[in-house]
Amino acid sequence: MRVLVLAAAVCLLPLPRLAAQDPFEIVVYPAATAGAGEWELETHLNHTARGPSQGQTHLTFELTRGITAGWEASAYVLTAYRPGFGAEYAGWRVRSRVHAPLRWKLPVDVGFSAELEAPQPAYGGASPTIELTPILEKRFGAVRLGVNANFERDLGEGEPGGTAEGWEFEPSALFAYRVSSVATLRLEYHGSFGEIASPLAGRAQVHQFFPGVDLRLSDAATLGLSVGAGATTAGNRLVFASRFELEL
């Protein structure tokens, strides 16, 4: 009986948010946004084979609407499967992304994303989080380079009797090469350097690499597949990721 009570108590406690790559949406955001009036539906299906979230499968539904030529808004529904718990509702997100106008003639494409997330306790902190992401991108013929400088913060008050948590720096980067009109090879990097200005920052850094391929199935559908490997034990060390995008 004591074992059952202890197990139930653990299940009700908020678990710490896993470091580095987002298990629900493993992606490096592009600078470009959906066109005005356009709708896009994406699904992200990811499975962790080794690491802190070992055995978990995460399925995310993302619906995006282009508001203007350089502004889009998205809404997410997060779901997951945990061994011993089954399928679960894992939370929601809303995101807005803007793109610098081409008439500015900047040397690189520039975008900015702002996201609010309200995860269930088992898949995040005890309060919502906000993520702010400056985006830089450059294309050279068949080559695309992208960088996301992700800054995330918990909107709660931190631990009882303590101070509120600060901003965490979680950068990501992309190298992609278009092999043909159908296939694009890519390599993504996702990292976590911990809380900015914290004396503990750097002690549990995470560095993960996701080689993969994007397949253009039709003019309106794209399938992305990748396998991620972690270079440290602080984050997930083997992840199978997929993304399906449909332009409506």
Index terms:
248 residues, mainly beta, disordered N terminus, Porin, twelve-stranded antiparallel β-barrel, 12 strands
Percent of residues in beta strands: over 45%
Q: Within the largest sheet, what's the order of strands? A: 1-2-3-4-5-6-7-8-9-10-11-12
The total of helices stands at 1
- CATH architecture tag: Beta Barrel
Instruction: Assign a percent range to the helix content.
Output: under 10%
Structural class by helix and strand composition: mainly beta
Estimate nothing, just give the exact number of structural domains: 1
Q: Which sheet architecture does the biggest sheet show?
A: 12 strands, antiparallel, barrel
Low-confidence stretches: 1-19
**Overall strand count:** 12
| Terminal Cα span | 53 Å
Write the layout of secondary structure elements.
Blueprint: H1 2-12, E1 39-50, E2 57-68, E3 71-82, E4 86-99, E5 109-119, E6 129-140, E7 143-154, E8 168-178, E9 183-192, E10 206-216, E11 221-230, E12 238-247
Antiparallel strand pairs: 1-2, 1-12, 2-3, 3-4, 4-5, 5-6, 6-7, 7-8, 8-9, 9-10, 10-11, 11-12
Short note summarizing the structure:
This protein has 248 residues and is mainly beta.
What would you note in describing this structure?
The chain has one domain (2-247): Porin, CATH 2.40.160.40. It is built from one helix and twelve strands; from the N terminus they run αββββββββββββ. It has one helix at residues 2-12, and strands spanning 39-50, 57-68, 71-82, 86-99, 109-119, 129-140, 143-154, 168-178, 183-192, 206-216, 221-230, 238-247. The longest helix is centred in the N-terminal third of the chain and has 11 residues, at 2-12. The termini are far apart.
